[in-house]
Design brief:
Blueprint: H1 2-16, H2 20-52, H3 56-69, H4 74-85, H5 100-124, H6 128-136, H7 141-151, H8 153-169, H9 172-178, H10 188-198, H11 201-230, E1 266-275, E2 278-288, E3 294-297, H12 304-312, E4 319-323, E5 329-332, H13 343-347, H14 362-371, H15 388-405, H16 421-434, E6 439-443, H17 451-466, E7 470-474, H18 478-484, E8 487-492, E9 495-498
Helix pairs in contact: 1-11, 2-5, 2-8, 2-11, 3-5, 4-5, 4-9, 5-8, 5-9, 8-11, 10-11, 14-17, 15-16
Length: about 500
Amino acid sequence: MAFILEMLAGAVGRLAALDAEVFRIFWFTVQIGLAGTLLGVVVALPLAWWTYGLAPRWKALVLIVLQMLLSVPTVIVGTLVYLLISRRGPLGALEMLFTPSGILIGEVMLIVPLVTVFLHSSLAQIPNGLVETARNLGYRGARLLALLLRECRAGVGAAVAVGFGRVVSEVGVAMILGGNIKGYTRTLTTAIALETARGDTELALALGLLLLAVALGNALLVHAIQGAAARAGGSEEGTVSPSVVPAADWAGLPAENESMPELAPIKLEGVTLTLADRPLFRNLSATLPLTGGLAVSGASGAGKTTLLRMIAGLVVPAAGRIDLGGRRAVLVFQRPFLFHGTVLDNLLASTMEGAPRRWGNWQASTSESSSGSGRVGVSSGGAGAHSRSGAKEARERAATALASDLGIAQLLHRDVSGLSGGEAARVSLGRALLADPDILLLDEALGHLDELALGLVLQVLRQFMWGGGGLVLVTHHGGLGQRLCRHRLRLQAGALHPEP
């Protein structure tokens, strides 16, 4: 025991004396580790995204291969890279053997499978409904990936930290490809191995303490990232007390007596779809009228949600087609899937630029629509007339005005994790409206609302229809469908039937 304490004291003394060679090795290890991690993430990210999008059977095969590679010893990786960059290898002309570049290549190959598996796991934990919500709002390709990475940022941070930890703690790759050359390619791990073999235990322990410090810092970083993600919700900074909003009168004239713009219907032509070996639709042909709104009812499991998902383009029928007449449909799910951030962040989350066409001047349109004296018109300037900053300001003004109409203006700067079910439902609806759809699809999206909130929402939906928007509402509330929508259909046994 005395010997161990003596060696530890000597190691601490070396560190306290700021031994130049010790800290040169330390900084080289950190630098090569950071560079290797960065390059590894750059390679692993598209690989993880590609794996995420594969069909289940192919995805399973790719993941098995990646997980197998996690168990490959570092000396095997080092040997394989050695064969590539040695003088007789295919990359020998680049003269990277026994250089930092050679170590870098080996470290990238070492951590790519590890980081890929972690990144894919983080992406796979995102609820499918949130992914569909993003696609529904127009996110595709790199923009969709960026959004999803933000949603699983704690997992991404952990993947990067684990990759860095793997790089700085390995010895086989650095030894084989770097050669442990003093002042050039010596890392903490290779130096520890060398000094232990030489009998300089104090120096080996000093280097080991630095390596443990790096490992501790890495672990604390992972803990901080995960803790920050866990604490990301519930902030109420910047909120104000809710104002008293009078109950909206939604018990007036039935929807069939209201004057609405004429809209072309949605046409279903020979639609066939089977889900989980259960046929939902067989050669379904129907016309879905949109003028004045359409309410669709039916028993649970009849396929109402699937019908809306097909109209939104989230589900492709096995046969037949759905003709929207070139219009864009946006679906509001029964369960509100909100993105990380504030209410305002979510309202502005669609991919469109500028204010929505139907209410570039939402506040004026609201006053006209509420009095029944006019239709919601297109903004006088239009989004194309704004500069980039002007377009952003126009969207923020529209979002603020719409939030006021929905009764959630006091929540604009609140984190969405602290919202009630009814508040989240209104945020989800407002986000869909600000995505500027031609057709709005509501899948039991009003079930979380109390009478006051429901009145406000119905008033906004009527404004949307007065402005030329098409509405398809799935609901079990017969009275709601009758009050809001002029047309009512019942889905039963894979067919649509008119309701009186």
